[in-house]
Amino acid sequence: MTATVTVRKASTDDIEKLYDIIQGYARQGIMLPRTREMLEEQIETFVVAEFDNVLIGCGSLTRLGPDLVEIRSLGITQGYKGQGIGGKLVDFLVEEARKQQIVKVMALTYEVAFFQKNGFTVVPKDIFPEKVWRDCIHCKKQYCCDEIAVLKRLD
Ligand SMILES: CC(C)(COP(=O)(O)OP(=O)(O)OC[C@H]1O[C@@H](n2cnc3c(N)ncnc32)[C@H](O)[C@@H]1OP(=O)(O)O)[C@@H](O)C(=O)NCCC(=O)NCCS
To answer: Is this prediction's pTM over 0.70?
Structure first.
């Protein structure tokens, strides 16, 4: 099935579906919520996976510093997991980072094994000071963060 899955940059036409996927996981506490306005403002940072013209996954790449980006909002809709689509999205995002000549791609996640399969290694969270000031201040778990930091170096 993965042969017919395509990954592309998102457009404003995708906002409603992106919102649904992210809200679904935000309700489960495994993703930070994004408003439609935020999605519109940040749409250029998003990529989507499609199968038969149906949007089945998404992810985004946020700049945290001169040499560091973070993968955020990575999610596959139920029924499509475990078929290589998350891996394709990560590959696409890593290529985007490479094009921007950024050497460090990180994520904060509960899905450590998935990221390790995609070439990331576990690192201490405190090596990412920029991250703390950008997004964690809006998170309910700011003072009790239980996510794991993973990093892929492209140099
Ligand atoms: C995490 C997520 C994006 C992975 O996407 P996916 O399409 O299911 O993953 P893939 O099929 O590309 O898996 C790639 C590899 O990782 C492995 N993998 C995926 N999820 C795994 C898990 N939870 N535990 C262990 N291994 C896992 C797969 O077995 C596969 O290994 P293989 O290449 O040896 O077969 C998806 O499960 C998801 O949407 N989860 C909920 C949202 C979430 O937690 N997002 C992460 C936020 S940072």
So the answer is: yes
